[in-house]
Amino acid sequence: MRLIATRLAALRHCLWLWPLLPIVVRGDTLVGMNGERFIGTVIEETSTNVVFESELGGRLAFPFATIRELQRTHPAEANQAATPATTDTNALTWKPPGVGHDGSDWVRLKSGEWLRGKLKYVQNKQVEIDSDEMEIQTFKLKNVSQIYTAKPVFTQFEDREPAYGTVVLSNDVVTVLGDEPFSLTRDMLIGITPSGRRTGIRNWSGDAAVGFSLQSGNTHQTTATASLELARRTPATTFMLDYLGNYSVANGVQNANNNRVNTTYDIRLNKDWFLRPEQTEAYQDILANIDYRLSGGVGAGYYIFDRTGLEWTLAAGPSYQYTKFSTVESGQSDSATTPGLLLESKFNIDITERLTFIQSWQSVFTSKESGQYTHHTVTTLEFEVKHHLDLDVSLIWDYLQNPQIRSDGVVPQKSDLYLTVGLGVRF
Prior knowledge:
about 425 residues; mainly beta; SH3 type barrels; Porin; 12-stranded antiparallel β-barrel; 3 helices; about 60% strand
């Protein structure tokens, strides 16, 4: 009786665990001649190409000459995909034969797909790789199960000096194979880049967006917006260059014409704090009576949140500002210089896998002659259309507490609001 009771208890335990057992969702598998592996569905097959719907990259066309192996799922297996079963051991243990000796970096996603190419960086809970087949792709670090670098790279861990060596990231362990090999847990990792203080195009990435609209009839209006972001990363540093421009003409009269260029250089001290030894801005807004405004400063910042899908940083520091006005009233100076205090916030959150909410604001406190208080906010909804193509909807708010009176006696408006829609490309 005791044996029967023991077996019944074990059976109840197994039934309780039944919903937690992994589910195998079988799909077609395509392996390229270069070793990259894609999982999804064969959509169409012609005499020269295979059209494949990849879980990772969407719909792709592969010439037969680039395909090493094509494994199809039998329809009966697909119908049984929702049946609880054990994990597909082959999918978990399969590794491209070129890993470790073909001169390329490799990234494996938790879906079982493999990418071959050049690792650009691991930073801010993101992984970016220039794939042989799919060009530049960016993933959340939580969706990446393995990384293998072909050449030595610079790796930064919390509370350690940068390490140089080939890297193997497997699940929760990061191993650096250098002069003195060591392994640490993934949660201590700050960043990985191909080079540290050295120059190199692989350290650069970017994002550019353009919006344009025309209106005719009772109102003739032309509107154009453009933005550009360039970033150079090392394991513990980030250099950012941002450009934002707006131009609009309605019935032959300009109602927007401004350009803004920002640069920042951040040094990550640990998982919470970063130092900003350099921050500059060049700004022009003819309608706000600003011929140009130059600012420079230093500061420090803190990560309120720094995890996959959620990042929020605050930064502050002293600055110095020079403003050249377009026109002024008689007897007034056409320029102003002043020290200032700069406050900045950047907030990103992934609403869904493809929709991201981004908000940045910058406030500067200066003398009354220079405007007294300046505020710049950009609120963006970024929707990933496909691969490196995004649809951006942004609301931009610029505010100047004390605008300079023009030579004709007109006081510019304090606030400017812009709603922009554009397509963005990551590179």
